């Protein structure tokens, strides 16, 4: 039997819908504006009349960005960094969390205290840099992938999920001769797909958007991620000097393409891979983000 809503409930629902529509517009408009500028003609961009739809459709910004070797180098580096960061994060976090989820783990209390301390006390920027230097990690692949692959908060979330799995599964596996490593990889992790998919997405997005670590620890431009190329074009904004003596510099000089066309185009191209990944993990996302709220 349907429950009849009161006038107050209807007003509340309408206000909620209007508020959510407002939030949607606030979030979508900047993205639509960036997309519209990237696809509009140089003249219209210079006039500043672009809102949320392109005017005088023009792909010159994308054309010249996709000609740049730096873009492909940064894209390749970001894919490698994101893939390795995700693998390391899920692997090491799962092993640590599984150990804490076992009731008879000997050092469980000490390990938990140690992880908790790391949530409140950090090493600081300079000591961290000196540590990476002494470990010969500066300007290497590993400085972008290994540090930060284990987060105390993530370990505790994983532990909470593992503790919610039936304990009889582990006992039955032990009776059949399995060890903890086998149980972790063959039983626990396959039952944790929503958790793994959610935190894989978090790690990929975090790694893909990371530029500050590259600024601090990478010296070779050939190792820069895509975000450093984006920063160079958008934040520095000196596109003419970047491409001095090239075809792009000539196009910028005669007004065939506007610097903002190229800046907005590289923003869209940088966002596109993440937008493609999300639909594949969407079915796990809601369940995954609710894990920490269901059981603490």
TrEMBL record:
It is a multi-pass membrane protein. GO terms for biological process: transmembrane transport. It is found in: Cell membrane. CDD domains: TM_PBP2. The keyword Transmembrane applies. It comes from the Bacteria. Gene3D superfamilies: MetI-like. The chain crosses the membrane at residues 12-32, 79-98, 110-132, 138-162, 196-218, 262-281. Residues 75-275 form the ABC transmembrane type-1 domain. Coiled coil: none annotated. Pfam families: BPD_transp_1. SUPFAM superfamilies: MetI-like (SSF161098). Keywords: Cell membrane, Membrane, Transmembrane, Transmembrane helix, Transport. The keyword Membrane applies. One of its GO terms (cellular component) is plasma membrane. Belongs to the binding-protein-dependent transport system permease family. This is Carbohydrate ABC transporter permease. It comes from Candidatus Merdivicinus excrementipullorum. The lineage of its organism: Bacteria, Bacillati, Bacillota, Clostridia, Eubacteriales.
């Amino acid at each position: 039997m349907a429950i009849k809503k009161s006038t107050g409930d209807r007003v509340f629902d309408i206000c909620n819908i209007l508020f959510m529509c407002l939030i949607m517009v606030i979030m979508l408009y900047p993205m639509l504006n960036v997309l519209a500028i990237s696809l509009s003609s140089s003249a219209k961009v210079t006039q500043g009349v672009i809102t949320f739809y392109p005017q005088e459709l023009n792909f010159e910004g994308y054309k010249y960005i996709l000609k740049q070797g730096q873009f492909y180098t940064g894209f390749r580096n970001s894919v490698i960094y994101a893939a390795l960061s995700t693998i390391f994060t899920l692997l090491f976090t799962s092993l640590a969390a599984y150990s804490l989820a076992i009731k008879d783990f000997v050092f469980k209390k000490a390990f938990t205290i140690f992880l908790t301390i790391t949530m409140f006390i950090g090493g600081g920027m300079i000591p961290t840099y000196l540590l990476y230097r002494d470990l010969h990690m500066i300007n290497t692949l590993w400085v972008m992938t290994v540090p930060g692959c284990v987060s105390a908060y993530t370990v505790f979330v994983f532990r909470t999920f593992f503790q919610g799995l039936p304990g009889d599964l582990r006992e039955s596996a032990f009776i059949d001769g399995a060890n903890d490593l086998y149980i972790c990889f063959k039983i626990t992790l396959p039952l944790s797909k929503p958790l793994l998919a959610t935190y894989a997405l978090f790690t990929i997005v975090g790694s893909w958007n990371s530029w500050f670590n590259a600024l601090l620890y990478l010296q070779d431009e050939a190792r820069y991620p895509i975000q450093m190329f984006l920063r160079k074009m958008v934040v520095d904004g000196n596109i003419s000097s970047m491409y001095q003596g090239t075809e792009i510099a000539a196009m910028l000089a005669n007004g065939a393409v506007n610097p903002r066309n190229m800046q907005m185009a590289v923003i869209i191209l940088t966002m596109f891979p993440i937008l493609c990944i999300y639909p594949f993990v969407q079915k796990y996302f809601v369940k995954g983000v609710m894990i920490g709220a269901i059981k603490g």
